[in-house]
Amino acid sequence: MTTAFLIATIIKVLVLFHMVPIMVSLLTLAERKVSAWIQFRYGPNRVGPWGLFQPIADGLKFFFKEELVPEGANPFLFRIAPALAAGPAMMTVAVIPFTFPILIDGQPFSMAIADINIGVLFFIAMSGLGVYGILLGGWGSNNKWSLLGGLRASAQMISYELSMMMSVITVVMLTGTMNLGEIFSFQGEHTWILFFFPVGTIAFVIFLIAAFAETNRLPFDLAECETELVGGFHTEYSSMKFALFFMGEYSAMFTMSCLLATFFLGGPTFFGLIESIDSLWLRALIGFLVFAAKVGLFLFFYIWVRWTLPRFRWDQLMHLGWKILLPISILNLMATGILIATGVLS
Fold first, then answer.
1. 104 within domain boundaries
2. pLDDT at position 31
3. DSSP letter string over 146-169?
């Protein structure tokens, strides 16, 4: 590895890992602005021009809030749970290729922090870890509302992760790889998985619905349902521990949006137009802008749905996960195998 390649790798790691907390702060502002737009309000507009410094004010406020540990709580679990909730969501960004590779000293340089051949498996592993922080936070708080919120989160994750993984396996079968860079390259050479009708389209819809449940966003926020559980798993939390739970939620929103764009919308590709650009650096720049636009579309959809749809009842959530999405995802996976085996999809 040359010195230039090593320096470029260090810069890439620092930029991409710092991008996640920056995106989280911007998403908190976007959440307020979009909700205000939907409800015919102004939203944050007093801290900086157009309220742009509101996330900084929120961060300072969290730093100076008093930290409390409830009587009877498990101090170790209570303190470590927020980090366990936020960490996996932030780590998933490591395998996401944000644009086309470039050349550094004549060597291909991937725009993913870890360009590994088992990127899909890494995503599956990380997506299943985040719920442990929520569950341990609920149990370690010594609060019945928090415990119920943690149990709901674990049941919800089990119910919807199965359907999500079936959709991911469908993508792997269609592309023939678990490397996220190769997945978007396949779509650049053929077409987006979304347009592999009907199996790709069905997999996209199932993954999108399951992504809402995995991130505990409305209409699937039963783990923190304020009308029933006060605040759910984070009822007893304050200061930066409270902020870490929300950093985990918004980080998961960001990574899920990136994965949706990569798995189903071709990542940085755009119907073969960008791949035809001769300059690798220009191709990478335009590809990054295209990828950012796709991710922004999904993030806006996350926020839009939250302020549009009512919360599901618990029985409706479980019915949708086990009796509707899971059977459809299994049948879709079987149909994908049949279509590939018969040569209809190749």
1. yes
2. 92
3. HHHHHHHHHHHHHHHHHHHHHHHH
CA distance 327 to 332: 8
For residues 306-326, average pLDDT: 90
The answer to whether 141 and 235 are in contact (CB under 8 A) is: yes
Q: How many domains does the chain have?
A: 1
pLDDT tens column, 245-284: 888 889 999 999 999 999 999 989 988 888 888 888 899 9
Answer positive or negative: Cα dihedral of 93, 94, 100, 102.
Answer: positive
Q: Which domain holds residue 109?
A: 19-41+68-341
* Beta bridge partners of residue 103, listed in sequence order: 108
Measure the CA–CA gap between 91 and 283, rounded to whole angstroms. Answer: 26
Q: Say how many residues make up the chain.
A: 346
**What 3-state DSSP class applies to 311?**
coil
How much is the pLDDT for 253?
93
pTM over the 0.70 mark: yes
Nearest CA-CA partner of 260 in 322, 309, 214, 308 = 214
Per-residue pLDDT band for 6 (boundaries 50, 70, 90) equals confident
